[in-house]
Each structure stands twice: as C-alpha cells, then as structure tokens.
Amino acid sequence: MLLNQAKVNVIRNAQSQEIAQDEVVKNDLIAIKRGQQICVDGIVTYTRGFECDESQLTGEADPIIKTVGDIVYSGSYVVSGTALIEATHVGQESYVAKLTLAAKQSKSIYSELIRTMKQIIRVLSFGIIPIGALLFMTSIFTKTELNQAILGTSAAVLGMIPEGLILLTSVALALGVVRLTRKRVLVKTMGSIETLARVDILCLDKTGTLTSGELQVKTIKPGDDISLDTLKATVGQVAHDLNEDNATGLALMSHFKATADWGEPQQIIAFSSARKWSAVSYQGASFVIGAPEYIFNSFTSEQSQAMTAATHQGLRVLAVAKSSETLVGHQLPTQLQLLGLLYLEDDIRAEAPQTLAYFKAEKVDICIISGDHPQTVSQIAKRAGVDNVSETVDMSKLPVETDYQQLVEKNRIYGRVSPEQKRLLVEALQANGHTVGMTGDGVNDILALKQADCSIVMANGSDAAKGISNFVLLDSNFDAMVGVVLEGRKVVNNIQRVASLYLTKTIYSIVLALLFIFISSPYPFQPIQLSPISTLTVGIPSFLLALRPNVAPLKGRFLRNVLEPALASGLSVVLYAMIILVVGQQLNWSYAATSTLTVWMTGMVCFMALSYVARPLNYRIILMITALAATFLLLFIFFGKLFALENLFQIKLALLYVPLMVTVYPLFYSLKKVMKRLLKN
Fold first, then answer.
1. d(CA 82, CA 36)
2. Each residue's pLDDT tens digit, 551-564
3. For residue 224, what are the contacts with CB-CB under 8 A and spacing of at least 6?
4. What is the separation, in whole angstroms, between the first and last Cα of the chain?
5. Which of 41, 205, 241, 441 is labelled catalytic?
6. pTM for the complete prediction?
7. From 246, 262, 387, 439, which residue has the greatest number of CB atoms within 10 Å?
C-alpha cells in the first residue's frame, strides 16, 4: 500500500516535483488533472476546462465547473480538464478531516464468511454466560460436589467456545493476501477476496480492461471542401492545445503535429465522459472533437455507411467540427461544419480471451459496459470471445423512465453509457440477486466501482478509481483476476471445512449443557478430557486443512454448508452421551466410566466428521487421520490418568462402545441427510 499510494505534483521554488499526499503543506501549488482526487482544500489559481465531482461531499454527481478563485475541497475528484490549486487547508484542517472520505475508506464488503462469523460470536456471547450459570446452579441444587460442579460447568463453557476459529479465519485470509501480493495484485480489504470468489456476474469496461487502452489512428477521412493536410493541421493544433492525457488525446497528439499557429486559445472545454466531446475556441473560430452522434444530429448516407462499417470493425469514430462562433459556457456552438472523421483502433489484450473463457467455464456471466459506440463495443466483445454480442443496447437512446432491472435481465452489451448509467446498471444487477464485480480504470467508472460488490482497477487507472477499489492489478494484467478468484475459493472452501469441525464441539456442548440443566447428573465431560478431542480432531487437522489448495467453485450458502455436518456430528455426540448416561445409571457405573466412554464416542464421531469435511481424500489426508486416530487411542492406553480417563479395555465397557462404534457411520450420514433437508441446502 505504501509503495503504491497516490502521489501529487507540486510546484515549489518554480520546480515541479512528485511527493506523497501527506507531505503537502499550506501554500503548495498543486498541479491536478482529470482522474485525480483532490487531497487538500484549496483555491484554483489556473484552469483549463476544470470540472469537479463533489459527490463525496454533497451526494450529487453532476460535474461542477471551477474557475480561477473558486474553492475546491478534499475528497472531490477531477472529471475534466487540468488546474493549479493553492493549498489552503491540509491534514486535520481540511474540510473533511473529521469525515472518512468515501473514496479513501473501505466500503462495506459483502462477505458472507465474515458476516457469519460475527453472527456466531454474537449468539455465543449472549448464550454462554446464562447457560453456564444455570448449569452450575442446578448442579449445586442436585447436591453435586462443588469441585465436580465447577469442573462440569467449566467443560461446558469451554466446549461452547470455538477457540481458534476466528484466528484461523484471519490467518487464512491474510495468507491469501500475501499470495496475491506475490502475483502483483494489491488487496485493499481481506474480506473482498471472498466477495470476488462469489461474484456471478462481472461487469467490464472495454477500454483498458478488454483492450490495451493504447489507441492508434488508423484512417483519416476529410469532409467536403477540406484537404487532408488542412484536416491534419487542424486536429494537431486542437489536440495539442487541449493537451489531454486520456487514451484518445494521447493518440491524437502522437499522430498529429501542432503545425498551425492560431495564437493562444480563448477558451477550452476539456473532455468529459458525460459530454463525450471536447472543444477549443480561438479568435474567430471554434473546433470540436468527439463522438459524432453527440456533435451532429444527422449525417449524409455516405457518412453514415462509412461510420457504420468502421464501428462494425471495432474502430472508434471521432468527428472533427468547426464553428465561426466562440464557445459560451460548456455548450456546443451552433452552425457546426463537419471537417472530417477519424478512425482509431484499440488492440484486444492478449490475455483477455482466455480469461473470459475461464469465467465462462466457471458460470460467471460477462457484462460489457462502455462509453463507446454500441457497434464498436459489440465487435470488441466478439473478438474477445463474449457471447450474445448481437443484442447491444445504445444507452444514449433510452428514456429516463427505463426499467433497468428488466433491461439487465436479457442484455449484456451496453454502449454509449454515461457514468451515472453505469452505476444504475450495476445497481439493477444487484437488485436482481447477483453478486456483481466491476472492473474499470477511469474517472467515468468511479460511480459503478463504488456501487459494485467488488471492484477491480488496473494500476494505470486514475488515482480516484484506485482509491475506491478493492483490488489493484499492479501489472495492469487482466489475467491476474483468475488468480484472485482461485485464491478466494481456496480461502472460503478451507475455512468452510474447518468451521464445521469447530462448530461440532460448540453444538454438542450447548445442547448437552441445556439438557443437563434438567438432568440430575454431573456434566459428562471434564475440561481436561476435552483437550484430546479439541487438539486431535479439531486443532491440528483444521490448521492443515486451512492451507489446502482447494479451488472448487463455491456452492450453497456458507452458514448452511457449515451447519450441515456440524449439526449431524454434534447431535450424534449428544445421542451417544445420553445412551451412555442411561446405561451407566442402570448398571451403576461410576462417573469416570461414563465420562470415559463419552469421550471415546465423541472422538469417533469427530473423526467421522473430519473424514467427511476433508474430502476428497488422498493418501496424505488418510495418513493424517490415521495418525491422529492412533494418537487418540494411545492417550487412553498410556495417559489415561493424566486425562481423567479409565481403562478402555474392560468387558463391561466394550459391550457398549463396540456396538455404538458400528453405528457411527450410518448415524452421522443419516442425520446429515436430515439436516440437508431441514436447512434446504
């Protein structure tokens, strides 16, 4: 995070230098451009088409035009143009110092795993103390010895606590973060690893995600009554005067030279994703470059055919227009004359097709959302291997009252999408029950990235986009997303396994404690007797299973998946404990004898649950379970006194526990089927 934190350009002593945001001091002159987030309060001292989005402060996403002398606030970000800002308030003195910036904070993460863990802890926190207190009081009232009552209550309370589960969850997530960092993926929040693993629809911004984002001018077509050289000179001068650092601006400045000399521009309107055009006004003339349909209402049939053919090839089309009027505000000048059309090409990322093929195989839907012409988006999507590209929606032609939830049911390719429409599309997909992932790199993606359940940004994206993302692909490599998904699956699947083991002990401890509140008999365990069970059937195997490379797709709900085997094994232990208690009372067995058998049968059930959650079994897993089970038996033989256990090899005890052992397998799997049906898993 420190190595990849956002920098700012400041001018000190007439020299430009790049520093960390927290090094900005009062009266620094900060150079800021489109896509950056403003990190201090300040006053605009110079501007070229400067517009800010202050939705972090006001909730309104409409761009606000800033002129010299206007105040800007930290937390807003630049959607258009460039400016110089003199810092007036920094650090704790800034306008939002006591507020957490939405673009800086960790947004609410949809993590079923973390939410479930919190629910478990919340329930146990309210349940353990009253249950333990009632069990202790009833033990005293039934004339149980004080030492026995204390030990029984302690065993019940300790058994209810899934000690180690939260720690193991945090460790597994942290190791996932470390492994992803080695793959050049910056993870902002641990919970987002699980969220991306659960994403069932991935929204992609075409430029910079499917494509490299490095545009090249392919064809130049002059209009009527204008020569090719004149068009080139015009575009070159306008592009260099605009001096925009987006993909289109860089491509135009690279291809065309600034050979004309029209003097200083009188006014500049920088490009914005909402307008989809930019303009420059000189003495006696204004020039506009942008999306053709946003500049002109109609074209000749020949021009329309040429543009249609270009978009069907996946090219981006730009119109160059001229007006004799000067610019007024941020409105298009009237009486525009078409000077010519420019056709630009963006290459598909080499890794994009195979990455999309992987998500398709994993039943993850792909949705393309772009500001480009719908046909251009469709052709790029087709070349990248996206299905159903024929049904493309032109968002610029949709009425305001469009039902977005119904729109996203059938369509997956969207063109001419405004930043606000991107957010509405993501919101509609979520309303339809999807877990939505969003990738992007520009300021026009910020609203959608904030709305999505999980957001992924390329390292070469804007600072504002990276500031609100959950993941940053440090090599800007789209293929790295496969590794993130696999890492998330590994973490969730493994935690799901070990959580069942921990909750088995919690379930049977709670149920037994509740039962023994009403049974005039000591609790069937002592604290020391829980140690072999906790260590050999939960502690050691859970640590090993939590690191297992299990990348199977996530199925079902986390809590239901965890509870299904946990309830089956926990209730099996309760049933065996009650059978042993009843038989022991009938045959006048000592407490030591009944507790020994209860510990033995509990171990058998827990090993059965372990063999289930550890599937698929391989020789290493089988060897681990065999070694742990053998150690469990050796504890009874050589360390019985240490763990308050009697000799297991007695005929009277064997006549009970041997038949019970035979029933462990059928009882566990029968109860598991019942739980599966009850939980509707």
1. 10
2. 777 776 778 888 89
3. none
4. 40
5. 205
6. 0.73
7. 439
CATH number, residue 264? 3.40.1110.10
Task: Residue 566: give the domain boundaries.
Answer: 112-177+491-679
Reported as type and span, the H/E element at residue 550 is none
Q: What is the CATH number of the domain that holds 535?
A: 1.20.1110.10
How far, rounded to the nearest angstrom, does the alpha carbon of residue 656 sit from its chain's CA centroid? 53
**Alpha carbon 586 to chain centroid, angstroms:** 58
User: Is residue 403 flagged as an active site residue?
Assistant: no
Length, in residues, of the chain: 681
Residues 6 or more apart whose CB falls under 8 angstroms from that of 658 comprise none
Report how far residue 286's alpha carbon sits from residue 280's, in angstroms, rounded to the nearest whole number: 6
Both 332 and 358 in a single domain?
no
Sequence-distant (≥ 6) Cβ neighbours of residue 294 within 8 angstroms: 275, 276, 277, 396
> Alpha-carbon distance 651 to 402, whole Å?
79
For the stretch 323-346, pLDDT in tens is 998 888 788 888 899 999 999 988
Would residue 601 count as lying in a domain? yes
Surface-to-core class of residue 21, CB atoms within 10 Å of its CB (0-12 exposed, 13-18 middle, 19+ buried): middle
Residues 537 and 509 in one domain: yes
Instruction: Supply the pLDDT for residue 105.
Output: 45
Q: Which two tokens mark 284?
A: 């006696």
Is residue 482 assigned to a domain? Answer: no
